[in-house]
Amino acid sequence: MVVLLANPTAARRPYRAPLASLFAVALLATSAGCAGGLDDPDRFTGGTGSACATSTTATGILQAQCFACHSTSSKEIGAGLDLEATGLPGRLYTTTSSSTCSSVPMANSADPANSLFLKKLTSNPGCGTRMPQGAALSDAETACLKEWLVNGKPSSP
Ligand code: HEC
């Protein structure tokens, strides 16, 4: 949109301006409210989807609540799960859990909403303890991570 409006030829040809702005508005209208669309960059990066509270991102939650034990630099990586290294959330679909958690994929490509990763955030984690260990995420944080994981499913994990 910025490119269109900054186009110097548009100034010399004013009759083009209304058409250009109409196009920009149409672009905005079609991209807004299209969370998880193919052209949505958040789908594979930070995750600022509609389920996330204002100015909250999935990576921000992981950083604040999980990196202490699940990052490249944490002293001890819980169950060997690194949530800081690149490739999330897609990497979770090809990462296998510890034997304590039955060596299944962290994220279930057949049914992403029922992934081990999300189950571990609940009061009934199925294996080991609820994450983050010694605390609990708010419902809003859990919903944000759920949307991030579900929308981030690679097309062929
Ligand atoms: C205080 C340290 C600590 C924090 C904080 C923490 N974890 Fe963990 N995590 C562990 C330990 C230790 C284990 C292995 C024991 C268990 O599963 O209870 C683990 C296991 C896991 C597992 C299962 C891994 C496997 O293969 O068995 C998942 C998934 C997980 N954590 C996700 C998270 C998420 C997501 C967060 C943040 C919301 C988080 N953890 C925060 C220490 C932590």
Write up what this structure looks like.
This is Cytochrome c domain-containing protein. GO terms for molecular function: electron transfer activity; heme binding. InterPro entries: Cyt_c-like_dom_sf (IPR036909). It comes from Corallococcus terminator. It is a single chain. The protein is mainly alpha-helical and 157 residues long. The protein folds into 2 domains: 30 residues, no CATH class; 111 residues, no CATH class. The longest helix has 15 residues. The N terminus is likely disordered. Bound molecules: heme C (HEC). Heme C binds next to helix 5. Heme C (HEC) binds next to helix 5.
Concise account of the structure shown:
It is built from seven helices and no strands. The chain has 157 residues and is mostly helical. It has two domains: 2-31, no CATH class; 41-151, no CATH class.
Name a few traits of the molecule.
disordered N terminus, 0% strand, mainly alpha, heme binding, 2 domains, binds heme C, globular, 157 residues, 7 helices
Question: Which SSEs are present, and which pair or pack?
Answer:
Blueprint: H1 2-6, H2 8-12, H3 17-31, H4 58-65, H5 67-70, H6 116-119, H7 139-151
The structure holds heme C.
InterPro entries: Cyt_c-like_dom_sf (IPR036909)
GO molecular function: electron transfer activity; heme binding
Keywords: Signal
